[in-house]
Amino acid sequence: MAKTNVDMLNGPLGRKILWFAIPIALSSIFQQLFNLTDIAVVGQFAGDKALAAVGANTFVINLLINLFVGISVGANVVVANSIGERSYRSVTRSVHTSVMVSFFSGIFLSLVGVLFAHPILSAISTPADILDDAVLYLQIYFVGMPFAMVYNFIAAILRGKGDTKRPLYVLMVAGAVNVVLNLVLVAGFGLGVSGVAIATVIANAISGVTLFYFLLHEVGPFKLEFWKLRITPFFLSRIMRVGLPSGLRGVVFSFSNVCLQSAINSLGSLTVAASAAALNYEFVVYYWLSSFSQACVTFVGQNYGAKNMDRCRRTVRWTLLLGCASTIVLSALCCVFAYPLLSVFTSNTEIIEIASIRMYVVVGLLFINVFLDVFSGALSGMGKSLAPALTCMAGVCGFRILWVIFVFPRYKSFTSLMVVYPISWVLTISVIMGIYFYHVRRSKF
Q: Which residues 6+ apart lie within 8 Å of 304 measured at CB?
């Protein structure tokens, strides 16, 4: 078997976790760059309504794809466990099963996005003056879903063996292409929201096809061979056992955010545009902290497979320390420079004022989420993803939905919607921590 890029089973952990997490964070940030440049370009060259049309799709897109992105976490964990167990035949079968799942996932999502864009966006009260553009953007965007799913699953496979650099390099190239195409199609040809959607589809195609090519030319058990492509029921069940709860958690998270987006939509297109602008920086900070959670999943996954529980516990401590410290710094920078950062998307001072509320209340407190994500990631690496998923569904998602139903109608403002985020995180963290320590104590090795 080819040597992994990061040896997770031996040696000091701190530096290895950091160098493993940074490429994941940068990869996610470059992936977010696709949407960020979409919003920035339409905001500057196609107007505030086009900005709102693209921004109104953010939570809808997450709702539709998060189930399958969560399942890709299952592929990561199964591969990592198999490496820790030194079961290379299991690695091979997991790889080929995961790739097949990515194909079917992408096709399914394309059909759903294209056929049901209008009823979905209508159901969440998308303002009538931006509905047609929002539907057009969503339909074109989802044409590229097969490529996006292939990228996500293969990136998860590569993370399972410690390779986080090649997915980053691929997204750097795809992100650069996306930026150039946005400017050409929107500023040059005046295509508006359809132009930014087409640019995103092309960028997704580049990233998905390139990683697929890399896997075809891998060595050892990670090498993809067409004649081996099939879904092996045993490994599919292992992937689903870990990935499905994570995916369902993501879906319910996104559903709660869609409920929040519906409430935001009721405040008018200026508030929709403001939320969309601030959300890009929120995603950047979240993807940074989430990279430490993903590092925790993979490091714990390999060491749990190797039956080294002490190293699993030390992984959790290191990811909490590194994740919290770096997220606090990043959030503080976003808050200090909120106005110039938001002016990248629009020159409308009213939109910037509203957007700054989300920057201060949500982005400024995102470090709290490190605890939630790291402990959940550790449990996923141990194959115990159901309990934290259910806890997050109830504690975070359920609370947000109840807030929209009962609190927002009485205090109908953007601020009253934003404060639900940190409150829901705090309520859930203590339960997740209790679940983690319970499973650690019950471990038999």
A: 81, 84, 312, 381, 382, 383
